[in-house]
Amino acid sequence: MNVRRRRISGIAVTAATALGLGTLSACSSDSSAAGNTDKFDVVASFYPMEYLAEQIGGDHVNVTTLTEPGQEPHDLELSAKQTAQMGEADAVLYLKSLQPAVDEAIAQSDVKTKIDAATLTKLEDHGNVEHDHGGEEHADEHAEEEHSSEGGEHALDPHVWLDPVKYAEIAQGVAESFEKADPDHADDYRKNAEALAKKLSGLDTAFKNGLAKTDSKVFFTNHAAFGYLAERYGLTQEAINGLDPESEPSPARIKELQEEAKADGVTTVFYETLVSDKTAKTLAKDAGLKTDVLDPLEGITDKSKGEDYVGVMEANLKALETALGAK
Q1: Residue 274 pLDDT more than 60?
Q2: What are phi and psi of 124, to 5 degrees?
């Protein structure tokens, strides 16, 4: 990797899984390594990890992401070039069980510092895997293999970044890993982590206050990404699909949701920017409901209702307040 900031082309654009470029840095096309800058080189698996690396690392890190903006991270397949670049980095930051291809590459990589965000907070089983989902190679099934609950039926939910409190726990662990791996800049990493913690605490307070009194506590989503957020703020998420965003729900599930919408005063079916809204809009039309975006923040694109994690989460809060009839 080279410290110069310019976008890759050529090989990169020929692959559907081209190396995603972070807002602070980019891999140069004239180098196949990710570890020869004069900074602390971090490879992040997808946007929520990239955001943490940039916020905590500040000027001392050079961050690249494996998931291109706009790409659905569950489906990511890595190119040989990306795998090679990962091996040259100083650290890799990922969330085990979300992206099986990344898990496999990291397991085989000799990168010095491997930071698994799943070990920095507690993952929970939100019981969403029993709903229909196809896609044999999706993350929920891999998660089920590696993190099966005692009953062995459900996967642990990987979407921890959508709970600002759990995300802050992960941020603290990432900061400690950065401090240990790059001790020369430990003080700055600590200060940056404290500043991020304040942002996330403010977000948590905004959600608590904004959703304290609402007409309804139930919201419908395209896929089950918001279990942690719902649990944190006393809401109930009902997903059309399970943890897999691309699966098709059964007719029985659609009927169940239509009945629940009437019973619980649900007004809105939420969909997301990176996945087709077809199923959500069909359900909404059949049940006489509105549709809106609730962004699971798996990537930032031009369609995102905010420029970064905090901005999109604030937009999510407004959408929930409107849909749930916040007082």
Answers
A1: yes
A2: -125, 160
List beta partners, residue 235. Answer: none
Structure tokens at 270: 């939420």
Kindly state the tokens that stand for 260. 């629940």
Say whether pTM exceeds 0.70.
Answer: yes
Cβ atoms of residues 238 and 221 within 8 Å:
yes
- Radius of gyration of the chain from Cα atoms? 20
Which amino acid is located at 80 in the chain? A
Which of 202, 226, 185, 219 lies closest to 91 in space, CA to CA? Answer: 185
Q: What is the pLDDT of residue 13?
A: 30
Q: Which helix (H) or strand (E) holds 65?
A: strand 61-65
Q: What is the pLDDT of residues 154-172, one digit of tens each?
A: 689 999 999 999 999 999 9
Give φ, ψ of 2 to 5 degrees: -120, 145
Residue pLDDT, tens place only, 48-78? 999 999 999 999 999 999 999 888 898 899 9
Work out the end-to-end distance of the chain between its first and last CA atoms, rounded to an integer number of angstroms.
51
211: tokens are: 């959703």
Residue with token string 């694109």: 301
Closest by CA position to 40, among listed 200, 188, 196, 197: 188
Measured CA to CA, the distance from residue 138 to residue 125 in angstroms comes to 17
Model confidence band, residue 132 (pLDDT cutoffs 50, 70, 90)? very low
The β-bridge partners of 41 are 62
For residue 65, what are the contacts with CB-CB under 8 A and spacing of at least 6? 19, 20, 21, 22, 43, 44, 45, 46, 47, 49, 50
What are 293-320's pLDDT values in tens digits? Answer: 999 999 999 989 999 999 999 999 999 9
All residues at 6 or more sequence positions from 4 whose CB lies less than 8 Å from its CB, including other chains: 28
Lookup: tokens for 155: 């996967």
